[in-house]
Amino acid sequence: MSRFDFFKTPRIVFGRGRVAELPELVAPLGRRALVVYNGDELGAGGPLDRAVDLLDEASVDVNVFRQKGEPRVADVERGVAAARDAGCDFLVGLGGGSAIDCAKAVAGVLANGGSPLDYMEVIGKGQALTRPATPWVAVPTTAGTGAEVTRNAVVGEPSRKFKASLRSELLLPKVALVDPELGVKLPPPVTAASGMDALCQLVESYTSTSASAMTDALALKGIELAARSLRRAYRDGADLEAREDMALAALLSGITLTNAGLGAVHGFAAPIGANFPIPHGVVCAALLPHVTGANVRALQSQSSTHPTLARYAAAASMLGPGASTAEAAAGAMADLARDLSIPRLSNCGLNQSDVAEMVALARKSSSMKYNPVALSDDELAGALRAAL
């Protein structure tokens, strides 16, 4: 059996209605909090109101910080300043992956000093974080990135046309509080895009060159959950069984990606997300079938019995009725994306003229090294063009 390391969040609290436990979970962390959120503002009756009410019950002085869109270096710097100015003892990341990644990055930089770029891979100095992040709690309201249990925070920098990570086990939250009921009012397009991101992460970590027995077991369970419930959650946001399945699938995807890495879909997501206003989940959903097809063809050219082909076949058998081969995986993923009305990337502003630059930038992504097979520039370009 291969050797592996396994990184994990100290405590995961999962289940319907468990957001009510937020006061007791934050009690050991301090009396003053910065809540980093996205989604509805205060007064809209959404998860932010619920969280603030619960923190008030715990006599916590609450300061709120809205993260608009995917976090950028400037956003993290503003968040650090806000936390310092308010004298915050801890943070709560509440919302989708953008809010949680921003809270994670703020917590890391707040404790270690300097700028996010000091610690960012690829486009920054890549310095190691040496101090544990300021204590923080992750409360996801979408079922997608699994950022509540990952040891990296993805941050963009427009001037460098790229998104990259601060990465360290020191960034893990004290608690990941996952309550599926918080996602009931999500609009169907957000449910679709975030759910496809979770599925993509599960498939990419299952087929990663760094997959292990631990991540395999979790990834397969996650794929099974997404296959049976993503369409249901999209059609009926109040279907709590489907919401629960997807919340768990996303959680598992975060655990598997932080331990096994991802692949070429997320390699593309780094530059595309930094240069175009396309939601991360939409990028992943649009590209997943086409990158999968390219990977399968490249693996078959090496050997018809390549072991990763059996992994794609296993995923296909869960995703599509009657699908049982590696070749069927891409089609099953495309069918799912179509059923969820995932838009083509050309409808979101990406054009043929952008392909060469996105391929060149994607090459820099840390995710590329975990792709199950080395794809040529032409193969990568073909996959991206097919998603346009």
> In the CATH hierarchy, what is the class of the largest domain?
Mainly Alpha
The portion of residues forming beta strands comes to 5-15%
Q: Tell me, what's the shape?
A: globular
Helix fraction by DSSP (H/I, runs of at least 4): 40-55%
- CATH topology-level fold name of the largest domain: Dehydroquinate synthase-like, alpha domain
Taking all Cα atoms into account, the compactness measure Rg is 20 Å
Lateral strand order in the biggest sheet: 1-8-5-4-2-3
Q: State the secondary-structure class.
A: alpha/beta
Total count of strands: 8
| Element-level helix/strand string | EHEHEHEHHEEEEHHHHHHHHH
Per CATH, the superfamily of the largest domain is Dehydroquinate synthase-like - alpha domain
The CATH architecture of the largest domain can be given as Up-down Bundle
Chain-averaged pLDDT = 96
**Poorly predicted ranges:** none
Span between termini: 41 Å
**What's the quaternary structure here?**
single chain
Write a concise synopsis of the structure shown.
With 388 residues, the protein is α/β, with parallel strands linked by helices. It is 50% helix and 11% strand.
Q: If you had to describe this structure to a student in words, what would you say it looks like?
A:
The structure is a single chain. The protein has helices at 22-26, 47-57, 73-86, 97-112, 116-119, 188-206, 213-235, 240-260, 264-275, 280-302, 307-319, 326-339, 355-362, 377-386, and strands at 12-14, 32-37, 61-66, 90-95, 136-140, 152-157, 162-167, 175-178. The protein is α/β, with parallel strands linked by helices and 388 residues long. The strands form 2 sheets. A 6-stranded parallel β-sheet has the order 1-8-5-4-2-3, with helices on both faces. Helix 2 (47-57) links the parallel strand 2 (32-37) and strand 3 (61-66). Helix 6 (188-206) runs parallel beside helix 10, helix 9 (264-275) crosses helix 13 (355-362) and helix 11 packs parallel to helix 12 (326-339). The model has no long low-confidence stretch (mean pLDDT 96).
